[in-house]
Amino acid sequence: MVPVLQSMSKASIARRMGVSVHTVDVYIRRARVKYAQVGRSAPTKADMLARAIEDGLVKPDNITGYESAAVDVGS
């Protein structure tokens, strides 16, 4: 969940996990459904971050801006 909350693209997350972008979408959708089922909706990334912090899944210090490790070949 941390990569999603760090604003990584779904394509980047999928590459790192070795799954398809569709699978990343399904995982995110499932997490949102589970939160909604217990009355804690999380329709946005900000809401997902709040729920993850509330649940102790991530610490605020662990959330930093994502920096791509890709090499800029145009320079």
Spell out the key features of this protein.
single chain; 75 residues; mainly alpha; 0% strand; globular
What does this protein look like?
The chain is mainly α. 52% of the residues lie in helices and 0% in strands. The chain contains four helices and no strands. The chain has helices at 2-5, 10-17, 21-37, 45-54. Helix 2 packs across helix 3 (21-37). It is globular, with a radius of gyration of 14 Å. The mean pLDDT is 82.
Summarize the structure.
This protein is mainly α and 75 residues long. The chain has helices spanning 2-5, 10-17, 21-37, 45-54.
Topology:
Blueprint: H1 2-5, H2 10-17, H3 21-37, H4 45-54
Helix pairs in contact: 2-3
- Quickly give the structural class: mainly alpha
Instruction: Give the termini distance in whole angstroms.
Output: 32 Å
Find the count of extended strands (DSSP E, 2+ residues).
0
Low-pLDDT ranges: none
